[in-house]
Predict the 3D structure of the following.
Amino acid sequence: MIDLRKMRDDPAYRDGAIRKGANAGALDDVLDLEEQRRAQLLAVEGLRADANAASKEIGRSNTDERPAKIEAAGVLKADLGDAEAVLEEVSTKLADLVLTIPNPADESVPRGGEDDYEVIVEVGEQRSAPPLDHAELGEALGLVDQARGARTSGSRFAYIRGGAVQLEFALVQWALDKLVGYGFEPVVPPVLVREDMMVDAGFFPTDRHQVYATEEDEMFLVGTAEIPLAGLHRGERLDPAALPARYAGFSTCFRREAGTYGKDTRGIFRVHQFDKLEMFSYTGPDVSWDELELLLSIEREILDELELPYRVVAVADGDLGAAAAKKYDCEVWLPSEGCYREVTSCSNYLDYSARRLDCRVRANKGSEFVHTLNGTAIPVARMLYFSSSTTSNPTAHCRSPTYFDPSALSTASNSNKNLRVVSDVVSVSEQLEGTPEAPLGRRVPVSVSEQLEGTRRVPANSQQLLVL
RNA sequence: GGAGCAGUGGCAGAGCGGCUUAAUGCGAUGGUCUUGAAAACCAUUGUACCGAAAGGUACCGGGGGUUCGAAUCCCUCCUGCUCCGCCA
């Protein structure tokens, strides 16, 4: 929700809203309605003061004086009722209109549409397409079972299986440890929320069509942990010493993906259900821009350590969501498509969301709205997708980051069978890269490469070693 | 799923439809006293909105209603607790 006072007084704020697509007429209507509302509020409160005084007077008077006074008070009450009705009408009109006004873009945000992003930095090598893409490999090796997923739940659902699951948990655990080191509190939030939570988090009514609803209970499945994390301090007044409050929320995310028919249908790039580790920060109003840079630096650190080639772009004003004043996208180079695709992003909402959530921080005099920010740490499905798609080695279709050092994992828990499987996943790719001491990884038997032969081109030397 | 009870300020806890701008206690803040502290005593003690200010309005879980007047009565929703049933 925008700041009406600022909208009236600060031309840059107003320009920012127009850059986000608000039309000038609507802004004028808002200011006009707000003017009307204030005038009417003054009238109503005056009448109410009179009515209160009259009632109090009745309480003080003798029984025989009362009937006349009660009648007089009844007249005041009628006037008050009329004035209140007008106020109510103006207020709802204003409230409805205000909710449609997006958060103004920050002045540093590039102008333009989807393609007018500004590239901030580019890291790593843009490799050429691998012989097999992620979907084929995942399916052939039994890591991603789309066919059975579809049979169970329909398109865009998959069973994630075997080593991919263990890689998921390893990724999440690794990233979670990192976030804890940055002062984030781990949270597993509710993923089924009430309608008012959806509204207050800013997802309803605009994105209602993207959300799964339950039939019996009027509950909604969240598309991101951002929603319940925004609810964590809803209606609260926070102690300044508690800020910044940082949360690392791990949750399953559900998205209807309405309007994306035929888009990204291969593999698990775009699915109805995936797990995600999400960062969410509440900060004081003066430090939120620093916090945005912190979130970005953490996202970059994750991509760096996963050794994924990526770039960071500042999203243009025309492509920002309604709530973001500024947003960075991190996009990983996807060899099979020959382009960058979004993997994580982070946004500063300033006080836009906090205003609707009524989340404030105590200040010297009274209180002020906090700022909220969010950023993706690990979108599991896409991380698996990219990790299995970025190798240059024709035989190593899928690689795991060197971070997941197999020896470290196996010493950490030698007896843990699950971890050992993950370490197998890693060690093969290391061996292919010529790491001399690396233990031998799991060899995928020839029968698998024969299966692959039927589906698509197979590298000449695939007989030697197909790797996960 | 069935039956019952409850929700009041930072916390605890009173509150008959009208001298409730919510008693009292604890806590917190300031002061007196003291070399310093404790104790005692005195005073202060919320938030939001409108307004230049004076002042006004709203807030006793949320929403609606009855009434000249609601923390108090009615409806509804939410939350918590107790008992019964069912399931792990």
Notes: Residues 38, 41-42, 44-46, 48-49, 51-52, 54-60, 66, 69-77, 194, 237, 360, 366-367 of chain A lie near RNA strand B (CB under 10 Å from a C1'). Residues 390-468 of chain A have pLDDT under 50 and may be disordered.
